């Protein structure tokens, strides 16, 4: 980065990103600590992930009454959610409401993409450069860039030659896309693809879903909330808050303490049927041992596979959809609205890429290869007007590494993480003083209801900065030994579960060619993580070093 450009403004803290994390971090540092703070946001509005993700069918899989902040009773009182799961429009409206209610907008610079940041060792501060060339200096740099904000667009030969339109779900045009009368091809059947397909199929003349790996899904059972629901959520707000802060996953329920393997097959089926009818991610919490034991997991997996075979009428399509190669919930488990039912429509076709892999894209559509019994290749052209890439993200580290962040001795974050992310408590990287990451790798983040994890991180960082001010510390950093300890904790926590046992999981970075395969989130639970972070703080920030 250009270090000669004159500095525009000197701040106590600069925050990157105006989603859930960045807004709350701004509030805590500006309103509670009285610091001079600015948020740099690449988009033209607040919302983070939800500002960009406006694809058809997009909806959060956390329930609305927990997919929100809990730090202000008044905020909880004056906001009314309309549905069980909020869509992007309502989440962005909520975050705009928060922004205005706490007068945050005046501290946010929109259309401000951070290109890089360099730690100035002489002055103990960060020199932050925007893509526009503008510079800021800040004592603390806090990344609040979200976990799924860098689109993963597969490098398929010939995309440039495609005569139709193509879109990635995470960069969806804000004025929408019309599928009326179009032949649409959707690549990807993760949480996004499973939400998008039923909605695209409503207006497309034909939808072809290209499935590389079959996936589980459980009905979301979205519905409008009643006045009574809202009243109950508000009345019980403090109980719900304690629950989301004190459990493993940050959701508004506890994981059952009952083991699947200690339950009779008849009772197990009843429990799964009830969870299927209730809908949502709670299905995953039906038994305590689902993510710990392959055999226990198999009971949930076979229940869902049986449901798929019952719903989907074409036996060949049903077989491809139910041919799932990984344990249930070892990848992020999607929830849907009529996903499997969509394949019963006359205008919807499934292409099983395990049988006919994609070979290229040409002017007219997507070309797959059929390998004949004698080893001969047959090319199959799927004619398309529109291609939708529901192919996920360079998750958790992607956005952090796209910026040119340099710590002590010009060490870049890319170099520091060349074999995978390493940090202390998911919060700080060796050699990068006064840089904090909200929901970065090594923290519970995507394995939880995100706002619960975000509040914990933001509060910890804010208290740490308050401690530094009180004790007149200039810098905080974490030595390599602390990262070594924490990386081992993260690996041990993951290895105690079935989570790393998946071929293409984005939790492992395995969906992006060349990305180091490291299990990135902390799987030991938000409750345990909160306790560890609190103990570290209580012990005068054990494992961190001040004023090196
Ligand atoms: P994803 O889970 O990574 O799924 C991407 C899909 O694209 C997978 O089916 C993948 O197949 C396929 N794919 C990737 N590259 C491909 C290629 N070159 N050829 C063919 N297929 C390819 O991404 P996502 O669905 O966008 O979801 C990402 C995360 O966002 C979720 O796990 C969730 O955390 C979050 N999300 C949440 C919600 C919600 O709150 N309801 C909604 C959407 C997303 P493989 O499985 O074979 O890799």
Itemize the secondary structure elements and their pairings.
Blueprint: E1 9-16, H1 20-32, E2 37-40, H2 49-52, H3 73-78, H4 88-101, E3 108-109, E4 114-120, E5 125-130, E6 135-143, E7 165-168, E8 183-187, H5 191-203, E9 206-211, E10 218-219, H6 227-235, H7 237-246, H8 265-278, H9 294-311, H10 315-322, E11 335-336, H11 339-342, E12 348-352, E13 358-362, E14 365-371, E15 377-383, E16 386-389, H12 398-402, E17 404-406, H13 413-416, E18 435-437, H14 450-470, E19 476-477, H15 480-495, H16 526-538, E20 545-546
Parallel strand pairs: 1-2, 1-6, 2-3, 4-17, 6-18, 7-16, 8-9, 8-16, 9-12, 10-11
Antiparallel strand pairs: 4-5, 5-6, 13-14, 14-15, 19-20
Helix pairs in contact: 1-14, 9-10, 14-16
The chain binds NADP nicotinamide-adenine-dinucleotide phosphate.
NADP nicotinamide-adenine-dinucleotide phosphate binds at residues 59-61, 148, 154, 187-193, 195, 212-213, 332, 353, 358, 390-393, 446, 504, 506, 511.
Structure description:
- This protein is of the alpha/beta class.
- It has helices at residues 20-32, 49-52, 73-78, 88-101, 191-203, 227-235, 237-246, 265-278, 294-311, 315-322, 339-342, 398-402, 413-416, 450-470, 480-495, 526-538, and strands spanning 9-16, 37-40, 108-109, 114-120, 125-130, 135-143, 165-168, 183-187, 206-211, 218-219, 335-336, 348-352, 358-362, 365-371, 377-383, 386-389, 404-406, 435-437, 476-477, 545-546.
- It is built from 16 helices and 20 strands.
- Strands 1, 2, 3, 4, 5, 6, 17 and 18 form an 8-stranded mixed β-sheet that branches. It has a 5-stranded parallel β-sheet with strand order 7-16-8-9-12, with helices on one face. Strands 13-14-15 form a 3-stranded antiparallel β-sheet, with no helix packed on it.
- α5 (191-203) links the parallel β8 and β9 (206-211).
- α1 packs parallel to α14 (450-470), α9 (294-311) packs antiparallel against α10 and α14 (450-470) runs parallel beside α16.
- The longest helix is centred in the C-terminal third of the chain and has 21 residues, at 450-470.
- The chain binds NADP nicotinamide-adenine-dinucleotide phosphate.
- NADP nicotinamide-adenine-dinucleotide phosphate binds at residues 59-61, 148, 154, 187-193, 195, 212-213, 332, 353, 358, 390-393, 446, 504, 506, 511.
- The site of NADP nicotinamide-adenine-dinucleotide phosphate has 26 residues, from α5.
């Amino acid at each position: 980065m250009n270090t000669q450009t004159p500095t525009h403004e000197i701040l106590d803290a600069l925050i990157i990103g105006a989603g859930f994390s960045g807004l709350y971090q701004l509030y805590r540092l500006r309103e509670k600590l009285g610091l001079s703070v600015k948020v740099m946001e690449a988009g033209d509005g607040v919302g983070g992930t939800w500002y960009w993700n406006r694809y058809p069918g997009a909806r959060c899989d956390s329930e609305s009454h927990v997919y929100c902040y809990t730090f202000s009773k008044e905020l909880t009182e004056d906001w009314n959610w309309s549905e069980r799961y909020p869509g992007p429009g309502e989440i962005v409206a909520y975050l705009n409401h928060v922004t205005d209610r706490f007068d945050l907008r005046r501290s946010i610079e929109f259309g401000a993409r951070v290109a890089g940041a360099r730690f100035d060792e002489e002055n103990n501060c960060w020199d932050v450069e925007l893509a526009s060339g503008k510079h800021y200096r800040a004592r603390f740099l806090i990344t609040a860039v979200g976990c799924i904000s860098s689109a993963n667009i597969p490098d398929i030969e010939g995309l440039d030659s495609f005569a139709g339109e193509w879109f990635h779900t995470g960069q969806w045009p804000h004025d929408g896309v019309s599928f009326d009368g179009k032949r649409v091809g959707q690549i990807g059947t993760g949480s996004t693809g499973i939400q998008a397909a039923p909605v695209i199929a409503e207006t497309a003349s034909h939808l072809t879903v290209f499935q590389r790996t079959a996936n589980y899904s459980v009905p979301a059972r979205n519905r409008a909330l009643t006045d009574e629901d809202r009243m109950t959520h508000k009345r019980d707000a403090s109980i719900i808050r304690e629950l989301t802060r004190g459990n493993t996953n940050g959701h508004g329920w506890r994981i059952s303490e009952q083991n699947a393997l200690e339950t009779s097959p008849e009772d197990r089926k009843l429990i799964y049927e009830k969870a299927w009818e209730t809908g949502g991610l709670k299905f995953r919490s039906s038994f305590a041992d689902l993510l710990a034991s392959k055999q226990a997991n198999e009971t949930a997996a076979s229940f869902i596979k049986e449901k798929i075979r019952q719903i989907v009428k074409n036996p060949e399509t049903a077989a491809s959809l139910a041919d799932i190669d990984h344990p249930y919930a070892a990848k992020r488990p999607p929830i849907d609205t009529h996903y499997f039912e969509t394949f019963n429509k006359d205008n919807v076709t499934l292409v099983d890429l395990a049988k006919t892999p994609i070979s290229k894209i040409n002017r007219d559509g997507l070309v797959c290869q059929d390998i004949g019994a004698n080893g001969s290749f047959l090319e199959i052209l799927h004619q398309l007007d529109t291609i939708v890439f529901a192919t996920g993200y360079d998750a958790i580290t992607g956005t952090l590494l796209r910026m040119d962040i340099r710590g002590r001795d010009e060490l870049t974050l890319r170099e520091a993480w060349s074999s995978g992310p390493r940090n202390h408590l998911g919060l700080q990287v060796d050699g990068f003083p006064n840089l904090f990451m909200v929901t970065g790798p090594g923290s519970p983040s995507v394995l939880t209801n995100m706002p619960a994890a975000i509040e914990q991180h933001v509060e910890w960082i804010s208290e740490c900065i308050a401690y530094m001010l009180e004790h007149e510390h200039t810098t905080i950093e974490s030595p390599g030994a602390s990262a070594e300890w924490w990386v081992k904790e993260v690996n041990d926590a993951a290895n105690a579960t079935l989570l790393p046992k998946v071929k293409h999981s984005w939790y492992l970075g395995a969906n992006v060619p060349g990305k180091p395969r490291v299990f990135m989130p902390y799987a030991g639970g938000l409750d345990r993580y909160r306790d560890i972070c609190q103990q570290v703080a209580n012990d005068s920030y054990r494992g961190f070093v001040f004023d090196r």
